[in-house]
Amino acid sequence: MTAKLLDVENLTMRFGGLLAIDDLSFSAAKDQITSIIGPNGAGKTTVFNCLTGFYKATAGSMFLNKENERLNLKKFSDFKVAQKAGVARTFQNIRLFPQMSVLENLMVAQHNKLMDASGFTILGLFNAPSFINKEKEAIEISKYWLDIIGLTHRADDDAGDLPYGDQRKLEIVRAMCINPYLLCLDEPAAGLNAKESAELNKLLLFIKKEKKTGILLIEHDMSVVMEISDHVVVLNYGKKIFQGSAKETKNSPAVIEAYLGTED
Amino acid sequence: MKKNFLVSSIKDSLFTGLIALALFGPIVGLRTVAKNEVLVVNPKWFIVLIIVIVCALGRFLTNLYFYNRDQKYGIQSTIGKSITNFLDTKGTQIALSAIIFSIIFPFLPFTDRYLMDIAIMMLTYIMLGWGLNIVIGLAGLLDLGYVAFYAVGAYSYALFAIHFGWSFWICLPIAGIFAAMFGVLLGFPVLRLRGDYLAIVTLAFGEMIRILLLNWYQLTKGPDGLTGIPRPSFFGLPFKSFPEEGEQTFHTFFGLEYSPMQRIIFLYYLILVLALITNLFTIKIRRLPIGRAWEALREDEIACKSLGVNPRNTKLTAFAIGAMFGGFAGSFFATRQAFISPESFTFIESAIIVAIVVLGGMGSQTGVVLATVFLIGLIEVFRDFESYRMIAFGGAMVLIMIFRPRGILATRKPTITLQKKEATK
């Protein structure tokens, strides 16, 4: 049994009268890919928004277990989840910085580290060697990730000019540039063709294996989910209706019912 | 197709003529004249006819040349492209020659007092444009109250210089700090606002500062303004025609004949240096993490948050630094005029600075210079035709928006590149 990286306990999110997430508990392991699936409107993205601080959960707790500390993600508000806790995310509709170059996108992801090195800009203004070195390091990290997704030759082009599939991959490696413990991917395979989603699988498996980053995945594309998930959590109407391995999920009557309805 | 287009163009231009008639008929055609203490209508239908014909014909021609579907990208984009290409390839040379030109400008044979005054005014606007470019162009925060920081800078300079007798070089940074503080003051309440809403609040802020200056009589002397603001000295050497007994002045120290131009030239170089500092600072800071965070914030605030970029600090620094340069420009304005009153800091000033930044191409430093020379130059050229100035101003804006809808220089260069490095390997 691998150590649990994320423990979500009794998470509840209420928007006025609407109960979007109802007493949800699940956990995700450190070097595993945990998929959250469910029909549209099941509350999957809301779970992400709670985890990454975009929403304040109504009740429950979310613990991130690092090597020697246990952080309650509920205590961090929006940007601090990424900055202090090391939880990165991507978005359902790609959110790159379209008019900035590919390399700049990755450099912004390393903002906090570079900001410290630039002595809150003052050292940076005078080209302090410590800052220059840190910047070079950041460029190397960016280059490393660009090599992995095969976009090094387009590093200086505007991110908005990339083909759709490349934008998806860029958004994922941009999230990886903050060096996260947990990576939350919101439908990364949406709109990708078969070849591109195979490449995506490869990238995610690489991140899981080499970087030991826990991956939380929301996905509708079952070819992606079934092939790479170690663990699947199924949501319907904000409630967890099933969890287990990919194979178990495929054969679960509760899941089939949620997706296809019952026979009358 | 072709025939259809011609027919619809004619229809369209006739319609334009009709609108022109409805507009200019009453305004131009029916002129009232006082005759024997009675108002009589003195119709001028001939002029109206000419105006209507000009409008209709002009519309017809623009239809043919700009909106002709057969040549999808008409002349506007060809001209635009050649301008962009020219400026892209020759950008550095142009910038360098512009700097050299501005350095030797005061000593050129045709330079007189009038030209120097215009040049100083232009440089002030360029500096303000560069300062506002940080807020609007880089951080994407549409600030319509920028003149407030200009005013804060001018007033804090004037008050410190008058009451404490401190020299320009001490008051300048103080004025900058004061303006930056006001920038943060404005920044806090508007942190959550974007776009139109932000524009409204900043506009109100600009007016608030002006009204405050107008009404706080004990401190600002209200509408009377502040007089007797000390003139700048050349590192302790004042510019005076008749020095007091034993006093060193600029011309006696250098053994020159006194001329009022000496002070003007000094002021010119002062604002040139201040503006260039603003420019260098912006160019440099754009390549630092904070500058990239500004631009990222302009592009997508939610993505910024997901990457751990603190939007509050990032926005506040943009407001503060932009305001600081506004404050520097304000102190220069105060020391040049030796008299300031709230009248100098009306909304129209903000509007002109925003126009300069937007027309120049958001975020483009060279664009700000071009737009300033164009707009302020135009206003000056038309100074003799007082009533036509604003028409020329508006017309120029329309032309720029037709030919370069995203500003004169809209191309953005990445702040950091990978390929160049590889090439040098």
Topology of this structure?
The complex is a heterodimer of chains A (264) and B (425).
Chain A: E1 4-15, E2 18-29, E3 33-37, H1 44-51, E4 59-65, E5 70-72, H2 79-85, E6 87-89, H3 102-109, H4 111-117, H5 122-125, H6 129-149, H7 164-176, E7 182-186, H8 194-211, E8 214-218, H9 222-228, E9 231-236, E10 239-244, H10 246-251, H11 253-260
Helix pairs in contact in A: 3-7, 6-7
Chain B: H1 2-29, E1 30-35, E2 38-43, H2 45-65, H3 75-104, H4 113-138, H5 147-164, H6 168-187, H7 195-215, H8 217-220, H9 250-253, H10 261-286, H11 289-299, H12 301-306, H13 311-337, H14 347-360, H15 365-381, H16 389-403, H17 419-424
Antiparallel strand pairs in B: 1-2
Spatial extent as radius of gyration of chain A: 19 Å
For the largest interface, the chains and their residue counts are:
A-B, 45 and 31 residues
CATH homologous superfamily label of the domain at 4-94 and 180-260 in chain A: P-loop containing nucleotide triphosphate hydrolases
User: Would you report the number of β strands of chain B?
Assistant: 2
Strand order of the largest sheet of chain B: 1-2
Shape of chain A: globular
N-to-C CA distance of chain B: 57 Å
N- to C-terminal distance of chain A: 41 Å
| Unreliable residue runs of chain A | none
Q: What are the secondary-structure elements of chain A, in order, as H or E?
A: EEEHEEHEHHHHHEHEHEEHH
Oligomeric status: heterodimer
Mean pLDDT of chain B: 83
* Helix/sheet category of chain A: alpha/beta
Profile the largest sheet of chain A: 6 strands, mixed
* CATH class placement of the domain at 4-94 and 180-260 in chain A: Alpha Beta
Beta-strand percentage range of chain A: 15-25%
Q: Over the alpha carbons, how many angstroms does the gyration radius of chain B reach?
A: 25 Å
Global outline of chain B: globular
Judging by the overall fold, what is the CATH architecture of the domain at 4-94 and 180-260 in chain A? 3-Layer(aba) Sandwich
Average pLDDT level of chain A? 84
Q: And the CATH topology of the domain at 4-94 and 180-260 in chain A?
A: Rossmann fold
